[in-house]
Design brief:
alpha/beta, seven-stranded parallel beta sheet, 18 helices, 42% helix, binds uridine-5'-diphosphate
Length: 463
């Protein structure tokens, strides 16, 4: 742990530095909003151009509604050219570019006025931020936007990739110290190939983790108690700073919602609607999208479905009519609402008409559902989602049909989807277990709850 003292004695001034994509930006903006509400000053540092329109729109709106936040932008130097296929993923390219450009933060951070009390950064800029923080004598904290369980896996990653025997004797699981074994099928594909741009970027930043003053995780103690205890007891890594669960981070008020989703939900019976979304950057194949549509139809349930056909929102072209056909849309219109736009997911999940959530298990989506006690039908597709799906099922928040596979590797047929949706919506025990998760999540963030105490402890340390 660092011995540096904050240079400041009154209200702390904190620099927050997210990485790319809505899944990383959202928790940082939520954290910034929380810090402001606890009397801190905040400087937000972001890369000059974003990959998606959603990111630039959310940054602009956040700044307009939080005028006390100072915003500084830094340029991006070109990412490493790589011939491997990951280079095709615009978000992985951006992670790498941000990581490689992080030295440009030095003059912005050193000239900050009033001087900074702390830097809160994403893991993917940690290496450079750690150097800057040592140079400027400003403590730095890591903010992990994924689960504590996925953090354990990332910390174990250097040992995992360097072990030549990792797949010997037909291993189906990986032993992570202090955690239950992780099925190999849940490990994100990039990490099975250490030359992948994402794996490279994460590995490059992991070495400085012990230098952080603390590691904040957007989770809550009750949800991942065993993993958090293992991290804090030195079982995963002996020299780890405190791991501080500070979630679920609460949404701040967003844009006036123009969409028809909320008015439509107002007309539906309580807990009758299944909400379907695969997050901000996951597109299924068109065949799978159609199969899902037929599955929703077959289930006989009411549904609100957000369709995405491209990873990056700027590239969305096909209309719903072209994709699903007018007759499908006509047939389901009394029971289902289908949109192809950004929706206010947090408000949707808080609506009393929602009774279940089909989710890709991006960590923000999981924490939002946890907070509302909404049962999830997990359909993880890439990244940390398999790890998240597994843990939410164990915690009682949902169900996961593993045979559906990850990464669009097979076409899941409508009959199976329809059946599983009925299971999700009709299981009273699941509903009650999920409600319990909701109660525990809200207890953690209320005044004096475990997450509230963790964040207040950090702020008090900086004053
Ligand atoms: N989100 C939203 N509306 C949309 C799509 C996504 O509000 O139409 C939000 C969602 O609530 C979550 C974030 O965007 O806060 C997506 O993050 P997550 O970790 O769930 O998944 P990712 O998009 O990173 O895969
Ligand atoms: N990751 C991170 N910071 C980033 C990008 C990725 O910490 O800026 C970690 C994070 O835990 C993430 C994992 O790497 O879940 C896999 O990233 P990927 O881009 O595959 O999926 P994501 O969860 O970001 O949608």
């Amino acid at each position: 742990m660092s011995t540096m003292e904050p240079s400041h004695t009154h209200s702390p001034h904190i620099a927050v530095i997210p990485s790319a994509g809505m899944g990383h930006l959202t928790p940082f903006l939520r954290l910034a909003s929380l810090l402001l509400s606890r009397n801190c000053s905040v400087t937000l540092l972001t890369a000059k151009s974003t990959v998606s329109n959603a990111e630039s729109r959310h940054i602009s709106f956040f700044l307009a509604t939080h005028p006390r936040v100072k915003h500084l932008e830094f340029d991006l130097i070109p990412p490493l050219q790589s011939s491997n296929s990951s280079a095709q993923d615009p978000f992985s390219i951006q992670y790498n570019a941000i990581s490689r450009s992080a030295h440009l933060l030095h003059p912005l951070l050193s000239s900050s006025s009033p001087p900074l009390s702390a830097i809160f950064s994403d893991l993917l800029v940690a290496k450079t931020v750690a150097c800057i923080s040592a140079d400027l004598l400003i403590p730095y904290y890591l903010v992990i936007t994924s689960s504590a369980r996925f953090l354990s896996f990332m910390l174990y990653l250097p040992a995992f990739v360097s072990n030549p025997d990792k797949f010997s004797s037909n291993a189906v699981e990986v032993e992570i110290p202090g955690s239950s074994p992780l099925p190999i099928s849940s490990i994100p594909l990039p990490f099975l190939n250490p030359n992948h741009l994402l794996a490279e970027t994460i590995l490059a930043n992991l070495g400085v983790v012990p230098e952080a003053k603390g590691i904040m995780v957007n989770t809550f103690d009750w949800f991942e108690a065993e993993t958090i205890a293992a991290l804090n007891n030195g079982i995963v890594l002996s020299n780890l700073p405190s791991v501080l669960p500070i979630g679920p981070l609460q949404a701040y008020e967003f844009d006036k919602d123009q969409s028809q989703c909320l008015p439509w939900l107002d007309d539906q019976p309580e807990k009758s609607v299944v909400y379907v979304s695969f997050g901000s950057r996951t597109a299924m194949s068109n065949d799978q999208i159609r199969e899902l549509g037929y599955g929703l139809d077959k289930s006989g349930c009411r549904f609100l479905w957000v369709v995405k056909t491209s990873k990056v929102d700027k590239e969305e072209k096909e209309s719903l009519e072209e994709l699903l056909g007018e007759s499908f849309l006509e047939r389901i219109k009394n029971r289902g609402m289908v949109v192809k736009e950004w929706v206010n997911q947090d408000k949707i999940l808080a609506h009393p008409a929602i009774g279940g959530f089909i989710s890709h298990c991006g960590w923000n989506s999981v924490t939002e559902a946890a907070e509302r006690g909404i049962p999830i039908l997990a359909w993880p597709l890439h990244g940390d989602q398999g790890v998240n799906a597994e843990l939410l099922q164990k915690a009682g928040l949902g169900i996961w049909e593993k045979t559906w596979g990850m990464g669009n590797e097979r076409l899941v047929k409508q009959e199976k989807i329809g059946k599983k949706i009925v299971e999700l919506m009709d299981d009273a025990e699941l509903r009650s277990r999920a409600s319990k998760v909701g109660r525990e999540a809200r207890k953690a963030t209320e005044l004096g709850g475990s997450s509230d105490k963790a964040i207040m402890g950090i702020i008090e340390n900086l004053t």
